[in-house]
Request: fold
Amino acid sequence: MTEPQSAPGGEQSRAGQVFLYFGPLTFLLYLTAPTAYLVDFGTSYMLKDQLHATAEQVANFRLITAIPTYFAVVFGLTRDLWNPLGRRDRAYLFLFSPVMAAIFTWLAVTKLSYGGLLVGMLLLMTLSRFQSAAYQGLIALIGQEKLMSGRLTALWQVVASFPQVLGALAGGWVAEHLRPSETFIILAIMSLVLGAYGALKPAAVFRGAYDQPLAKGTHFWGDVKRLVKHRAIYPAVLIAFMFQFAPGSNTPLQFYLHDKLHASDAVYGEYYAVFAAAFVPMFFVYGWLCKRVSLQKLLWWGTIITVPQMMPLAFIHSAQAAVWLAAPIGMMGGIAAGAYFDLAMRSCPAGLQGTLMMLVESGFQLSYRGGDVLGAKLYSLSPTNGFLYCAIATTVVYALILPVLLLIPKGLIATMDGERNPELDAEASAAAAASTG
Reply:
């Protein structure tokens, strides 16, 4: 059996090349994705300011357009089973990006309407799931094979934060200074750039990556059976779902800042820019800690710190206070976010990296959108305490993550990044036996 590659030695010397490939790819992917702040905030401003939608209408639009993400596991399984043009993950970038560019262009040249925006965003969300499945499946596979899931998680989250910050800052400015058609043309151009990136094939990432035991699957029903029996997936998916359940952090916060604190649209964007930026130093800290502390400790530390994350926002009296609080609130969630994505990578069954990562994505997005709808309803219950109800709901769910941590297989999280992991070694051996059996 071919042993999984490890980080020490030659692989460690090539880690920089791995980072160099995934860095720009992450930036481009998260800049153009319909779930990114640039697109999500942009469409919410169009709905609120130009189509005069209410808070619940905006939340429902986000819920409906995110439907493909709730079934993201289908796209992940497609990635694991379908090898388009014989180019695996790269093909998903240069095949689907031009189609997304065409849809952005269609939105640019047609009259803005609720129905047109809904259809366009649904199509974009569907196509982007193929890209996301390829990206997340590949980064999880490389993280497992090279024993660097923690460091790749840190890179992923750090780089993904920059388009989030840019999108949050630009969202309000774009809403005030650019027509929707101009916004969509810019997004179309960026989609074409992402497609061109799919032509790259650095050896440090792709040489032998799909030949290792951890990359081997069996067949459709065999893979489904292995997925269901892989007990590590259940806490990983549940934790991701719970962590993203924040009823007050999206539409209710947008209306809370505007209606109660009398802030402009730009302040909502400023809050999220600071919030997203505050995660960055903590992701750097996570990248340093994961080589020195076991994932088990990082999961517990991160969860305990993040439990009261949302409560301070319920007691502010000015929009400026919200922007100032965004930094500590974001920092409180950084270690937890890094640990949860690290856990997801380690939990992937062999040959099913795309499936598991997109199953996590499904839970993540369903919770994100569903929590937003629930938050809008809680917010509407009371003009005075609506946002407080949202913050309390978030805090309770975060606290309930702690007992879920006890369900994670101990061997999976007992090691530091770069150490050989008995759970992954056993998974590689089982995969090798299944593929030759």
Notes: The first helix runs from residue 10 to 13. The CA atoms of residues 19 and 155 lie 7 Å apart.
